[in-house]
Amino acid sequence: MKRFFSLILWALSSFFLLEATPTSLFWTNCNTDIQEMETALLTYDAFLRTCHSPKKGRTLIQDFGCTVGAFSWNGLQGEVGADYLTGESYPFLFNGKIGFGEGVLFENAPAVNVGIFNVGTRTSGLRRTNENIVDFLFGMSLPQKIGGVLTLGFFSGSSAMGKNRKGVMIGYSRTLREATDSHGKKYDKWLFMADYASGKNSIGGGGFSIKYYFTKRICLQTGPIWFIDWATYGKWRWALQIDIEI
Fold first, then answer.
1. Which of 19, 1, 27 shows the shortest CA–CA distance to 241?
2. Are 20 and 94 spatial neighbours (Cβ–Cβ below 8 Å)?
3. Backbone torsions φ then ψ of 211, nearest 5 degrees
4. Cα separation of 57 and 87, whole Å?
5. pTM of the entire structure?
6. 20 with 38: CB under 8 angstroms?
7. pLDDT digits over 190-213, tens only?
8. CA 211, CA 101: separation in Å to the nearest integer?
9. Of 60, 79, 85, 112, whose CB is crowded by the most CB atoms within 10 A?
10. Cβ-count burial of 220 within 10 angstroms (0-12 exposed, 13-18 middle, 19+ buried)?
11. What is the pLDDT of residues 49-99, one digit of tens each?
């Protein structure tokens, strides 16, 4: 019964999604990870301006979010999320995605995701938020000699997202160091992340970062990000992200 109501929650949210980020890598959503069932991820993202010119975008954008594992059924997983963006007229935002993990569909199969994000409630005016971006992602662990996980994605949205409504995403993550918890289980301690989205639009750009886990469920991620459309937030910014899993 609990799984049934979780599935209904996800289905309903698909009709009322607003701008927000599902489980992401760094700047982009090019990540096939999905929040586990009955867990929640609390996030805080800040994008710091690297100069003081008023022509280079706003001084600081802050995003408070929560992503919840909505359901799990025969290897298919789903998540939904909600965000609050400070300083925005329409600050409450949502997202969702479903998918299969690596090796679930068949032996050596890549992870496969489909999601929707940046679907906002403002459908008219100069700053519309109904971007309605749908993405398809494929992720695969690389051979041990290379290491890490490579993810490729394709996205398509409405005219509200900018000049280029379609494009590609690429992401790469690699564990630099592992640690062991009090139960003797290993987890990632230090990671390197890099990602990129194409096009002159609201998500076009890329970045790279270092991610550090204080504990198995609390981490800090930071690094530079840059934009293809300079009019959005300027040429580049410094991002700071804090995640707490419950």
1. 27
2. yes
3. -115, 130
4. 13
5. 0.84
6. no
7. 999 999 999 999 899 999 999 999
8. 22
9. 79
10. middle
11. 766 554 554 445 788 999 999 999 999 999 998 888 887 787 777 889 999
CB atoms within 10 A of CB 87: 10
Q: Looking at the 3D structure of the chain, how many domains does it have? A: 1
CATH of the domain at 86: 2.40.160.40
Q: What is the mean pLDDT of the chain?
A: 85
Q: Which two tokens stand for residue 52?
A: 């003081």
Average of per-residue pLDDT across 111-116 = 95
Structural domain boundaries enclosing 188? 2-245
Rounded Cα gap, residues 218 and 116, in angstroms: 26
Q: How far apart are CA 215 and CA 242, in angstroms?
A: 12
Residues 6+ apart with CB under 8 A from 210: 190, 191, 192, 193, 221, 222, 223
pLDDT value of position 181: 85
Q: Phi first, then psi: what are they for 205, rounded to 5°?
A: 150, -170
User: Average pLDDT in the 167-184 region?
Assistant: 93
